[in-house]
Specification:
Blueprint: H1 2-17, H2 27-40, E1 44-46, E2 53-58, E3 63-69, E4 73-77, E5 80-84, H3 89-103, E6 111-117, H4 125-131, E7 138-148, E8 157-158, E9 161-162, E10 165-174, E11 178-179, H5 189-201, E12 211-220, E13 227-228, E14 231-240, H6 243-264, E15 267-276, H7 283-297, E16 302-303, E17 306-307, H8 316-320, E18 325-335, H9 350-364
Parallel strand pairs: 3-6, 3-7, 7-18, 8-16, 9-17
Antiparallel strand pairs: 1-2, 2-6, 4-5, 8-18, 10-14, 10-15, 11-13, 12-14
Helix pairs in contact: 1-3, 3-9, 5-6, 7-9
């Protein structure tokens, strides 16, 4: 039976890999999940205003849940812009459906809820699911994600992933254009952009804290090379391992931009968006996943918790529901060159491993 299930999980992966869809537009993906659930005889709930599906098996008062993100990235692959599952969400859907396959005929004394969530890459799909009751009455929530080879090799699995927090700033400098021969008559936005870059790189907190801030977009000037531009657009990517450090970093940048506006005599407008919180891992949920890993593939396969500066909107579930006990399982799959690389690849045999560990975790929770 396990070989049949493994083949089915791989077939599902190939199906979802062929229909990558960006955030909030996962229409084919949602329909494909619905068709699979129909064929398995599983009841589910879809939504009229957003993509995604919530399914449930089992009986009882307690509710345990697992989240699968279903969107893809919009990415240039071999010179063509297209949807691309370079973050491995096609693998996650397949592993979560695989865990359902392993569980559906077992006698369950609790309900197990399967949340197929849209728009993880936008950082707010989890909020939409929370607002639609996806984690109502849920005591434990689990996620699962493939990890790059430098974090976990094939055959090693971690009971938790400690993602960092992230937020993005988009801003604009409003100075004054001037002729290239008369720079004193204007207010050069490029000077201000260079000052912002220097300021951002000179922000220091304790070296025992993990954090970073860097400019990721600069737009200034036009076709005329003899005009000193008065306006410019910019963006800053801000990250920290802990939510509290991200708040300090954000406050520091707000203060710095205000001071630079005064120093250069220009207006600087900016706004913050796409906040994704850092992980708040439950020791209890982590311990349950550890035991499931040991039971399923052996003590030697259990890896230490993964600590990464990457972010995931999975952690909104615990930020919005502090009593929720949650952890995300990290699966080694010899994934390379890396997540979000257009040619990301991994060992497909990891899919069944992830599905079986996840099923065992949900039984033990």
């Amino acid at each position: 039976m396990r070989q049949v299930y493994e083949e089915q999980i791989l077939a599902w992966f190939e199906q979802f890999h062929a229909i990558p869809e960006v955030s909030w537009k996962e229409f084919k993906t949602t329909q494909a999940i619905a068709n699979i659930l129909d064929n398995l005889g599983i009841t589910y709930r879809s939504f009229s205003d957003v993509t995604g599906i919530v399914a449930e098996v089992g009986e009882g008062e307690e509710v345990i849940a697992v989240r699968a993100e279903i969107d893809a990235l919009w990415q240039e692959v071999d010179g063509v812009w297209q949807g691309n599952h370079s973050c491995g969400h096609d693998a996650i859907i397949s592993m979560v459906l695989g865990s359902l396959l392993y569980l559906k005929d077992q006698p369950l004394t609790k309900k197990v809820r399967f949340i197929f969530q849209p728009a993880e890459e936008k950082g707010n799909g989890s909020i939409a699911m929370i607002e639609r009751g996806a984690v109502d009455h849920v005591s434990h929530l689990f996620g699962i994600h493939l990890r790059p080879v430098e974090e976990l090799p094939m055959g090693r699995v971690s009971a938790s992933i400690h993602h960092g927090a992230a937020i993005f700033l988009e801003g604009k400098v409003f100075g004054e254009d001037a002729h290239g021969a008369r720079p004193h008559q204007g207010k050069n936005a490029i000077d201000v952009i260079f000052a912002i870059q220097q300021f951002v790189k000179s922000i220091y907190f304790s070296p025992f804290e993990a954090y970073s801030a860097k400019l990721t977009k600069i737009i200034a000037g036009g076709e005329s090379l003899n005009i000193i531009p008065g306006s410019a657009e910019f963006a800053i990517d801000v990250r920290a391992q802990k939510n509290e450090m991200l708040d300090k970093l954000k406050d520091k940048i707000d203060t710095g931009l205000t001071n630079l506006s005064n120093l250069y005599g220009v207006d600087i407008e900016w706004n913050w968006s796409d906040f994704t919180p850092g992980a708040e891992v439950s020791p209890e949920a982590e311990a349950i996943a550890e035991e499931a890993i040991r039971h399923t593939i052996g003590d030697e396969a259990l890896a230490l918790p993964v600590i990464t500066s990457g972010s995931d909107d999975f952690h909104f579930y615990t930020i919005k529901n502090p009593k929720l006990k949650a952890s995300m399982i990290g699966v080694g799959a010899d994934l390379q060159p890396g997540l979000h690389h257009p040619k990301m690849n991994f060992n497909k045999s990891a899919l069944d491993i992830g599905a079986r560990i996840l099923a065992e975790t949900l039984v033990r929770a």
